[in-house]
Amino acid sequence: MNILILGPGAVGSLWATKFQLAGHHVSLWGRTSESELSLQLDDAPLTTYSNQSISSLQEADLILITVKAWQVESAIEPLLPHINADTIVMLMHNGMGTAEWLESKLSDNPIVIATTTHGAYKPTKQHVLHTGHGYTQVGGFNAKGAKCEFLQDVMNHALPSVNWNPNIHSALWTKLAINCAINPLTAIHQCKNGDLAAEQYSSLLEAITHELVEVMNKEAIVTDFDTLHRTIMQVVNATAANYSSMRQDVFHKRRTEIDFITGYLLQAAKKHQINTPENAKLYQCLKQIEQSWTEQ
Ligand SMILES: NC(=O)c1ccc[n+]([C@@H]2O[C@H](COP(=O)([O-])OP(=O)(O)OC[C@H]3O[C@@H](n4cnc5c(N)ncnc54)[C@H](OP(=O)(O)O)[C@@H]3O)[C@@H](O)[C@H]2O)c1
Protein backbone atom coordinates (compact mmCIF):
# COMPACT_ATOMS: atom_id res chain seq x y z
CA MET A 1 0.00 0.00 0.00
CA ASN A 2 0.96 3.66 -0.38
CA ILE A 3 0.96 4.89 3.21
CA LEU A 4 1.53 8.48 4.30
CA ILE A 5 2.32 9.22 7.95
CA LEU A 6 1.16 12.68 9.00
CA GLY A 7 3.16 13.68 12.10
CA PRO A 8 6.24 11.41 12.23
CA GLY A 9 6.90 11.85 15.96
CA ALA A 10 7.41 8.87 18.26
CA VAL A 11 4.27 6.90 17.33
CA GLY A 12 4.31 7.99 13.68
CA SER A 13 7.97 7.01 13.22
CA LEU A 14 7.33 3.63 14.85
CA TRP A 15 4.52 2.86 12.40
CA ALA A 16 6.40 4.37 9.43
CA THR A 17 9.42 2.12 9.98
CA LYS A 18 7.29 -0.95 10.72
CA PHE A 19 5.16 -0.44 7.56
CA GLN A 20 8.33 0.09 5.51
CA LEU A 21 9.90 -3.11 6.87
CA ALA A 22 6.65 -4.94 5.99
CA GLY A 23 7.11 -3.91 2.35
CA HIS A 24 4.78 -0.94 2.00
CA HIS A 25 5.63 2.27 0.20
CA VAL A 26 5.81 4.80 3.03
CA SER A 27 6.16 8.57 2.88
CA LEU A 28 6.13 11.15 5.64
CA TRP A 29 4.49 14.50 6.19
CA GLY A 30 6.39 16.21 8.96
CA ARG A 31 6.53 19.82 10.02
CA THR A 32 9.86 20.57 8.31
CA SER A 33 9.93 21.30 4.58
CA GLU A 34 12.95 19.07 3.79
CA SER A 35 12.09 16.84 0.82
CA GLU A 36 13.47 13.76 2.58
CA LEU A 37 13.62 12.55 6.18
CA SER A 38 15.54 9.54 7.52
CA LEU A 39 14.44 7.26 10.31
CA GLN A 40 16.08 4.42 12.20
CA LEU A 41 14.02 2.02 14.29
CA ASP A 42 16.02 0.63 17.24
CA ASP A 43 19.09 -1.03 15.63
CA ALA A 44 17.63 -1.40 12.12
CA PRO A 45 19.38 0.43 9.25
CA LEU A 46 18.63 4.11 8.61
CA THR A 47 15.99 4.49 5.87
CA THR A 48 15.10 7.59 3.89
CA TYR A 49 11.52 8.63 3.17
CA SER A 50 10.06 11.38 1.01
CA ASN A 51 8.61 14.25 3.06
CA GLN A 52 5.82 16.68 2.21
CA SER A 53 5.42 15.15 -1.26
CA ILE A 54 2.10 16.29 -2.80
CA SER A 55 2.11 13.35 -5.25
CA SER A 56 2.55 10.85 -2.37
CA LEU A 57 -0.33 12.55 -0.58
CA GLN A 58 -2.55 12.35 -3.65
CA GLU A 59 -1.65 8.70 -4.27
CA ALA A 60 -1.96 7.57 -0.64
CA ASP A 61 -4.16 4.54 0.01
CA LEU A 62 -3.90 5.27 3.72
CA ILE A 63 -3.08 8.44 5.64
CA LEU A 64 -2.17 7.66 9.23
CA ILE A 65 -2.46 10.78 11.41
CA THR A 66 -0.20 10.52 14.45
CA VAL A 67 -0.03 14.13 15.61
CA LYS A 68 -1.34 14.92 19.10
CA ALA A 69 -5.09 15.45 19.42
CA TRP A 70 -4.84 19.24 19.59
CA GLN A 71 -2.62 19.29 16.47
CA VAL A 72 -5.01 17.37 14.20
CA GLU A 73 -6.94 20.34 12.81
CA SER A 74 -3.93 22.49 11.97
CA ALA A 75 -2.01 19.50 10.53
CA ILE A 76 -4.74 18.22 8.20
CA GLU A 77 -6.34 21.52 7.11
CA PRO A 78 -3.66 22.49 4.52
CA LEU A 79 -3.67 18.95 3.11
CA LEU A 80 -7.44 18.73 2.49
CA PRO A 81 -7.46 19.92 -1.16
CA HIS A 82 -5.02 17.14 -2.12
CA ILE A 83 -6.67 14.16 -0.41
CA ASN A 84 -8.32 11.70 -2.79
CA ALA A 85 -11.86 10.64 -1.79
CA ASP A 86 -10.77 6.95 -1.85
CA THR A 87 -7.96 7.48 0.64
CA ILE A 88 -8.54 5.89 4.03
CA VAL A 89 -7.82 8.39 6.81
CA MET A 90 -6.86 6.92 10.17
CA LEU A 91 -6.53 8.80 13.45
CA MET A 92 -4.19 7.42 16.11
CA HIS A 93 -3.87 9.56 19.23
CA ASN A 94 -4.96 9.72 22.86
CA GLY A 95 -8.23 11.46 23.62
CA MET A 96 -11.45 11.88 21.65
CA GLY A 97 -13.26 14.55 19.68
CA THR A 98 -11.18 14.96 16.52
CA ALA A 99 -12.96 12.36 14.36
CA GLU A 100 -16.20 14.37 14.29
CA TRP A 101 -14.31 17.38 12.92
CA LEU A 102 -12.40 15.21 10.43
CA GLU A 103 -15.63 13.72 9.08
CA SER A 104 -17.09 17.20 8.58
CA LYS A 105 -14.11 17.98 6.33
CA LEU A 106 -13.72 14.59 4.59
CA SER A 107 -17.28 13.30 4.46
CA ASP A 108 -16.61 11.09 1.39
CA ASN A 109 -13.53 9.36 2.80
CA PRO A 110 -13.39 6.18 4.86
CA ILE A 111 -12.45 7.34 8.37
CA VAL A 112 -10.91 4.86 10.79
CA ILE A 113 -9.83 5.32 14.40
CA ALA A 114 -7.02 3.48 16.14
CA THR A 115 -5.86 3.33 19.73
CA THR A 116 -2.54 1.80 20.67
CA THR A 117 -0.72 0.78 23.83
CA HIS A 118 2.67 0.44 22.13
CA GLY A 119 5.34 2.68 23.63
CA ALA A 120 7.63 4.75 21.40
CA TYR A 121 10.27 7.37 22.11
CA LYS A 122 12.40 9.52 19.84
CA PRO A 123 15.71 10.40 21.54
CA THR A 124 16.82 12.21 18.34
CA LYS A 125 15.12 13.44 15.17
CA GLN A 126 16.13 10.30 13.24
CA HIS A 127 16.07 7.61 15.90
CA VAL A 128 12.91 5.96 17.21
CA LEU A 129 12.88 3.42 20.00
CA HIS A 130 10.12 0.87 20.44
CA THR A 131 10.01 1.12 24.23
CA GLY A 132 7.05 -1.06 25.03
CA HIS A 133 5.19 -3.82 23.23
CA GLY A 134 1.46 -3.31 23.23
CA TYR A 135 -1.56 -3.85 21.04
CA THR A 136 -3.63 -1.74 18.72
CA GLN A 137 -7.37 -1.61 18.27
CA VAL A 138 -8.85 -0.27 15.04
CA GLY A 139 -12.40 0.37 13.92
CA GLY A 140 -14.49 2.39 11.49
CA PHE A 141 -15.76 5.82 12.46
CA ASN A 142 -18.11 6.25 9.49
CA ALA A 143 -19.92 3.77 7.20
CA LYS A 144 -17.08 3.62 4.66
CA GLY A 145 -14.53 3.26 7.45
CA ALA A 146 -16.49 0.31 8.86
CA LYS A 147 -15.74 -1.57 5.61
CA CYS A 148 -11.96 -1.37 6.11
CA GLU A 149 -11.59 -4.50 8.23
CA PHE A 150 -8.79 -5.68 5.90
CA LEU A 151 -6.56 -3.13 7.69
CA GLN A 152 -6.33 -5.55 10.60
CA ASP A 153 -4.22 -7.94 8.49
CA VAL A 154 -2.20 -5.13 6.91
CA MET A 155 -1.32 -3.61 10.29
CA ASN A 156 -0.89 -6.95 12.08
CA HIS A 157 1.72 -7.90 9.51
CA ALA A 158 3.63 -4.68 10.28
CA LEU A 159 3.27 -4.32 14.06
CA PRO A 160 1.23 -6.95 15.91
CA SER A 161 -1.05 -7.32 17.55
CA VAL A 162 -3.89 -5.49 15.87
CA ASN A 163 -7.53 -6.18 16.49
CA TRP A 164 -10.41 -4.86 14.37
CA ASN A 165 -13.05 -3.71 16.83
CA PRO A 166 -16.52 -3.04 15.36
CA ASN A 167 -17.31 -1.25 18.62
CA ILE A 168 -14.27 1.03 18.61
CA HIS A 169 -16.37 3.80 20.21
CA SER A 170 -16.65 1.73 23.38
CA ALA A 171 -12.91 0.92 23.38
CA LEU A 172 -12.07 4.61 22.97
CA TRP A 173 -14.35 5.55 25.86
CA THR A 174 -12.71 2.97 28.12
CA LYS A 175 -9.25 4.29 27.17
CA LEU A 176 -10.52 7.84 27.72
CA ALA A 177 -11.82 6.90 31.18
CA ILE A 178 -8.46 5.37 32.15
CA ASN A 179 -6.70 8.50 30.90
CA CYS A 180 -9.16 10.76 32.78
CA ALA A 181 -8.38 8.91 36.01
CA ILE A 182 -4.60 8.57 35.69
CA ASN A 183 -3.23 11.38 33.52
CA PRO A 184 -4.39 14.61 35.26
CA LEU A 185 -3.59 13.33 38.76
CA THR A 186 -0.10 12.15 37.80
CA ALA A 187 0.49 15.43 35.95
CA ILE A 188 -0.66 17.62 38.85
CA HIS A 189 1.28 15.64 41.47
CA GLN A 190 4.22 14.89 39.12
CA CYS A 191 4.18 11.27 40.18
CA LYS A 192 4.42 7.84 38.59
CA ASN A 193 1.26 5.94 37.67
CA GLY A 194 1.88 3.44 40.47
CA ASP A 195 1.82 6.19 43.10
CA LEU A 196 -1.94 6.48 42.54
CA ALA A 197 -2.38 3.13 44.33
CA ALA A 198 -1.62 4.93 47.62
CA GLU A 199 -4.40 5.37 50.17
CA GLN A 200 -4.33 9.17 49.80
CA TYR A 201 -5.78 8.93 46.26
CA SER A 202 -8.34 6.16 46.80
CA SER A 203 -11.46 8.20 47.61
CA LEU A 204 -10.70 10.74 44.88
CA LEU A 205 -10.16 7.99 42.29
CA GLU A 206 -13.46 6.45 43.35
CA ALA A 207 -15.29 9.75 42.96
CA ILE A 208 -13.71 10.31 39.53
CA THR A 209 -14.75 6.79 38.50
CA HIS A 210 -18.37 7.29 39.65
CA GLU A 211 -18.60 10.40 37.48
CA LEU A 212 -17.06 8.58 34.51
CA VAL A 213 -19.49 5.67 34.78
CA GLU A 214 -22.51 7.99 34.86
CA VAL A 215 -21.41 9.81 31.70
CA MET A 216 -20.36 6.62 29.90
CA ASN A 217 -23.70 4.95 30.61
CA LYS A 218 -25.51 7.97 29.14
CA GLU A 219 -23.25 7.59 26.10
CA ALA A 220 -24.55 4.00 25.83
CA ILE A 221 -21.24 2.48 26.97
CA VAL A 222 -21.92 -0.61 29.04
CA THR A 223 -19.88 -0.45 32.23
CA ASP A 224 -20.34 -0.16 35.99
CA PHE A 225 -18.33 1.20 38.91
CA ASP A 226 -16.69 -2.10 39.93
CA THR A 227 -15.65 -2.98 36.37
CA LEU A 228 -14.22 0.44 35.53
CA HIS A 229 -12.54 0.93 38.89
CA ARG A 230 -10.91 -2.51 38.60
CA THR A 231 -9.72 -1.69 35.07
CA ILE A 232 -8.24 1.65 36.18
CA MET A 233 -6.42 0.08 39.14
CA GLN A 234 -5.12 -2.73 36.91
CA VAL A 235 -3.57 -0.12 34.62
CA VAL A 236 -2.19 1.82 37.62
CA ASN A 237 -0.46 -1.36 38.82
CA ALA A 238 0.60 -2.69 35.40
CA THR A 239 2.21 0.65 34.52
CA ALA A 240 3.36 1.50 38.06
CA ALA A 241 6.89 2.50 37.03
CA ASN A 242 5.75 4.68 34.09
CA TYR A 243 5.17 8.39 33.87
CA SER A 244 1.96 9.21 31.95
CA SER A 245 2.23 11.30 28.79
CA MET A 246 0.44 14.17 30.55
CA ARG A 247 2.88 14.06 33.46
CA GLN A 248 5.70 14.25 30.90
CA ASP A 249 4.04 17.12 29.01
CA VAL A 250 3.65 19.16 32.23
CA PHE A 251 7.21 18.34 33.27
CA HIS A 252 8.50 19.69 29.94
CA LYS A 253 5.97 22.57 29.93
CA ARG A 254 4.37 21.30 26.69
CA ARG A 255 0.68 21.72 25.92
CA THR A 256 -1.19 18.65 27.19
CA GLU A 257 -4.06 16.68 25.62
CA ILE A 258 -6.40 17.58 28.55
CA ASP A 259 -8.96 19.24 26.23
CA PHE A 260 -9.43 15.96 24.36
CA ILE A 261 -9.37 13.76 27.48
CA THR A 262 -11.07 15.32 30.54
CA GLY A 263 -12.32 18.19 28.33
CA TYR A 264 -14.16 15.69 26.11
CA LEU A 265 -15.67 14.03 29.17
CA LEU A 266 -16.89 17.38 30.52
CA GLN A 267 -18.53 18.22 27.18
CA ALA A 268 -20.36 14.89 27.20
CA ALA A 269 -21.39 15.43 30.83
CA LYS A 270 -22.75 18.89 29.98
CA LYS A 271 -24.76 17.44 27.08
CA HIS A 272 -26.39 14.96 29.47
CA GLN A 273 -26.66 17.49 32.33
CA ILE A 274 -24.52 15.38 34.64
CA ASN A 275 -22.48 16.96 37.42
CA THR A 276 -18.81 15.96 37.30
CA PRO A 277 -17.19 18.22 39.93
CA GLU A 278 -14.06 16.13 40.56
CA ASN A 279 -13.18 15.84 36.88
CA ALA A 280 -13.99 19.55 36.41
CA LYS A 281 -11.53 20.43 39.21
CA LEU A 282 -8.79 18.36 37.56
CA TYR A 283 -9.49 20.05 34.22
CA GLN A 284 -9.33 23.54 35.73
CA CYS A 285 -6.13 22.70 37.55
CA LEU A 286 -4.43 21.50 34.35
CA LYS A 287 -5.60 24.56 32.42
CA GLN A 288 -4.19 26.79 35.17
CA ILE A 289 -0.86 24.98 34.99
CA GLU A 290 -0.76 25.43 31.18
CA GLN A 291 -1.81 29.08 31.55
CA SER A 292 0.97 29.76 34.08
CA TRP A 293 3.62 28.96 31.43
CA THR A 294 2.37 31.64 29.03
CA GLU A 295 2.33 34.20 31.87
CA GLN A 296 6.01 33.65 32.71
N1 LIG B 1 4.68 7.97 22.45
C1 LIG B 1 3.99 6.95 22.93
O1 LIG B 1 4.54 5.98 23.47
C2 LIG B 1 2.47 6.92 22.81
C3 LIG B 1 1.80 5.73 23.11
C4 LIG B 1 0.42 5.67 22.95
C5 LIG B 1 -0.27 6.78 22.49
N2 LIG B 1 0.41 7.94 22.23
C6 LIG B 1 -0.36 9.07 21.72
O2 LIG B 1 -0.05 9.21 20.34
C7 LIG B 1 -0.11 10.58 19.96
C8 LIG B 1 1.24 10.98 19.38
O3 LIG B 1 2.20 10.88 20.42
P1 LIG B 1 3.76 11.00 20.16
O4 LIG B 1 4.43 10.59 21.41
O5 LIG B 1 4.14 10.32 18.89
O6 LIG B 1 3.90 12.59 19.99
P2 LIG B 1 5.02 13.38 19.22
O7 LIG B 1 6.32 12.65 19.31
O8 LIG B 1 4.95 14.79 19.68
O9 LIG B 1 4.55 13.29 17.69
C9 LIG B 1 3.71 14.21 17.07
C10 LIG B 1 4.42 14.61 15.79
O10 LIG B 1 3.52 15.39 15.01
C11 LIG B 1 4.28 16.45 14.45
N3 LIG B 1 3.40 17.54 14.04
C12 LIG B 1 2.74 18.42 14.82
N4 LIG B 1 2.04 19.29 14.07
C13 LIG B 1 2.28 18.95 12.78
C14 LIG B 1 1.87 19.49 11.54
N5 LIG B 1 1.08 20.57 11.45
N6 LIG B 1 2.29 18.88 10.41
C15 LIG B 1 3.11 17.81 10.47
N7 LIG B 1 3.55 17.25 11.62
C16 LIG B 1 3.14 17.82 12.77
C17 LIG B 1 5.23 16.85 15.57
O11 LIG B 1 6.26 17.63 15.05
P3 LIG B 1 7.23 18.49 16.02
O12 LIG B 1 8.17 17.47 16.58
O13 LIG B 1 7.85 19.46 15.11
O14 LIG B 1 6.35 19.09 17.07
C18 LIG B 1 5.67 15.48 16.05
O15 LIG B 1 6.74 15.00 15.27
C19 LIG B 1 -0.50 11.33 21.23
O16 LIG B 1 -1.89 11.48 21.27
C20 LIG B 1 -0.04 10.42 22.34
O17 LIG B 1 -0.77 10.64 23.53
C21 LIG B 1 1.77 8.03 22.36
Q: Please report the distance between the alpha carbons of the first and last residues.
A: 47 Å
- Count the DSSP helices: 11
- Which structural class should the secondary elements be placed in? alpha/beta
Would you give the CATH topology of the largest domain?
Answer: Rossmann fold
Strand proportion, as a percent range, falls in 15-25%
Descriptive report:
There is one protein chain. By secondary structure, the protein is an alpha/beta fold. The chain folds into two domains: 2-165, NAD(P)-binding Rossmann-like Domain (Rossmann fold, 3-Layer(aba) Sandwich); 169-295, N-(1-d-carboxylethyl)-l-norvaline Dehydrogenase, domain 2, CATH 1.10.1040.10. It has eleven helices and eleven strands. A seven-stranded mixed beta sheet has the order 2-1-5-6-7-10-11, with helices on both faces. A four-stranded mixed beta sheet has the order 4-3-9-8. α6 packs parallel to α9 (245-251), α6 crosses α11 (277-295) and α10 crosses α11. It is globular and about 55 Å long. The relative contact order is 0.11. Residues 6-12, 29-31, 66-69, 71, 74-75, 93-94, 116, 119-120, 122, 245, 257 line the site of NADP nicotinamide-adenine-dinucleotide phosphate.
